[in-house]
C-alpha cells in the first residue's frame, strides 16, 4: 500500500551468511514490515551464467528459502519465487533483447570483466546477455525500487534503458508507459568482513553462515585474524581485522562499536573473540532454531515456493499480455 514494489533476491549458490544478513536480509525484512510489496527472486537460472558444474540446484533453492523464512521474510506478505517457475520472465527477454545493442552489453562492467577474465576462452551468450536477464527480473513485476550495492548500478541503469526504449518503440501517443523506471535503493552499509579479514563471501571459507551451529561459529571466530596489540580499539582503517570483530559484536548486539571496544579494553584478541562469539550466537539462536524446524519440513518449504511461484506467474503473465498488446501482437 506504499506504492512501492521492490525486487530483491539471490542466486542459490551457497548458504547465506552474516554478510547477507547485515548487508541485505535485514533491510528486506524492514521494507516488508513497513508495508512495501516485496518480490524475492531465487535466481536459479542465473546460477548457470558463470558456473557450469554446480550440481543439483534444487537443494540449494530450498536451503535459500529456509534462510529467508528463518530471518523473517514472511511468505504471506513477500512473494518468494524461483526464476525457472515463471516462463513469462524468459519470454520478456526477446522484446528486451531487441531494444539493446551488443555494444552496450559488452560495455556493461560485469560482462566486460568477465570477458577480460575469460581471455581467449569462449564466453557464453548467457553471460553476454546477463544485464538483460536482470532487466527482465526487475521489469516483469514492474518493480520501481531495487535495493542494490554500487557495483549493481550499471545493471539497474540497463533496466531503465530497456524500459524507456520499449516504451519509445512500442508506446502510442496517449498510452501510459508499460514499465516504470526503476530507482536504486542504494545500500550504504560497508561490507561485512570474514574471519580472514577479507570480504565475507560464500566461496572464501571465511563466512559465518546463518545455519551454522554455535560450536562451529565459536571455532571459526577463534581462528579469526587479529593483530598484536592487546588493547582493543575501534579503528576500521588502521586496524581492519580487530575492528571487524568489534563491529560484528556491535551489530549482533545492537550496540555502538566504540562502547564494545572500550569494554574489552586490554582484554586482547581472545576476549574480543569471546564477545563476538557470544553476541553472534545469541543473535542467531532464534534464527537457527527456526531454520532447523524449516529444513526438517520440506513439504512446507515446497508449499511456500508453490504459492510464491503462482503469484509471480500471475504478475508476469499480466505484464507479458501488456507487452504483447503494446507490440500489437
Ligand atoms: P552472488 O554469488 O550471487 O554474487 P553474493 O553472495 O556474492 O551473491 O552477494 C549477494 C548480495 O549479498 C550482495 O550484492 C550484497 O548485497 C550482499 N552481501 C554479500 N556478502 C556481503 C558482505 N560480506 N557484506 C555485506 N553485504 C554482502
Ligand atoms: Na559474489
From TrEMBL:
Task: Give the PANTHER family listed for this entry.
Answer: TRYPTOPHAN--TRNA LIGASE, MITOCHONDRIAL
Superkingdom per UniProt: Bacteria
What is the name of the protein in this document?
Tryptophan--tRNA ligase
Query: A Gene Ontology molecular-function term?
Result: tryptophan-tRNA ligase activity
Q: GO cellular component terms?
A: cytoplasm
Q: What is its EC number?
A: 6.1.1.2
Respond yes or no to whether keyword Protein biosynthesis is given for this record.
yes
Question: Which UniProt keywords are listed?
Answer: Aminoacyl-tRNA synthetase, ATP-binding, Ligase, Nucleotide-binding, Protein biosynthesis
Q: What's this protein's family per the entry?
A: Belongs to the class-I aminoacyl-tRNA synthetase family.
Question: InterPro entries from the entry?
Answer: aa-tRNA-synth_I_CS, aa-tRNA-synth_Ic, Rossmann-like_a/b/a_fold, Trp-tRNA-ligase, Trp-tRNA_synthetase
Record's keyword annotation contains ATP-binding: yes
What biological process terms from GO does the record include? tryptophanyl-tRNA aminoacylation
Which reactions does this protein catalyse? tRNA(Trp) + L-tryptophan + ATP = L-tryptophyl-tRNA(Trp) + AMP + diphosphate + H(+)
Amino acid at each position: 500500500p506504499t506504492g512501492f514494489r521492490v525486487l530483491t533476491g539471490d542466486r542459490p549458490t551457497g548458504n547465506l551468511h552474516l554478510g547477507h544478513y547485515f548487508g541485505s536480509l535485514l533491510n528486506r525484512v524492514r521494507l516488508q514490515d513497513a508495508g512495501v510489496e516485496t518480490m524475492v527472486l531465487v535466481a536459479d537460472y542465473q546460477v548457470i551464467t558463470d558456473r557450469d558444474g554446480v550440481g543439483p540446484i534444487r537443494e540449494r533453492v530450498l536451503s535459500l528459502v529456509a534462510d529467508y523464512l528463518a530471518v523473517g521474510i514472511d511468505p504471506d506478505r513477500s512473494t518468494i519465487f524461483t526464476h525457472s517457475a515463471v516462463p513469462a520472465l524468459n519470454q520478456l527477454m526477446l522484446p528486451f533483447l531487441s531494444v539493446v545493442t551488443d555494444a552496450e552489453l559488452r560495455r556493461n562492467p560485469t560482462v566486460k570483466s568477465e570477458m577480460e577474465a575469460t581471455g581467449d576462452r569462449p564466453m557464453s551468450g548467457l553471460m553476454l546477455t546477463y544485464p538483460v536477464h536482470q532487466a527482465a527480473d526487475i521489469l516483469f513485476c514492474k518493480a520501481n525500487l531495487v535495493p542494490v550495492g554500487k557495483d549493481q548500478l550499471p545493471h539497474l541503469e540497463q533496466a531503465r534503458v530497456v524500459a524507456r526504449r520499449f516504451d519509445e518503440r512500442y508506446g502510442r501517443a496517449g498510452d501510459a508507459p508499460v514499465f516504470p523506471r526503476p530507482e536504486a535503493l542504494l545500500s550504504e552499509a560497508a561490507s561485512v568482513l570474514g574471519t580472514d579479514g577479507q570480504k565475507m563471501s560464500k566461496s572464501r571459507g571465511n563466512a559465518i553462515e546463518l545455519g551454522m551451529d554455535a560450536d562451529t561459529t565459536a571455532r571459526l571466530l577463534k581462528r579469526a585474524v587479529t593483530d598484536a596489540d592487546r588493547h582493543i580499539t575501534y579503528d576500521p582503517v588502521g586496524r581492519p581485522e580487530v575492528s571487524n570483530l568489534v563491529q560484528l559484536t556491535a551489530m549482533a548486539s545492537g550496540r555502538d562499536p566504540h562502547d564494545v571496544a572500550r569494554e574489552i579494553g586490554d582484554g586482547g584478541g581472545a576476549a574480543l573473540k569471546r564477545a563476538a562469539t557470544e553476541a553472534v550466537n545469541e543473535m542467531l539462536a532464534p534464527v537457527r532454531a527456526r531454520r532447523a524446524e524449516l529444513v526438517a519440513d520440506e513439504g512446507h518449504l515446497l508449499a511456500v515456493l508453490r504459492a510464491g511461484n503462482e503469484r509471480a506467474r500471475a504478475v508476469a503473465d499480466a505484464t507479458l499480455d501488456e507487452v504483447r498488446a503494446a507490440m500489437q501482437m
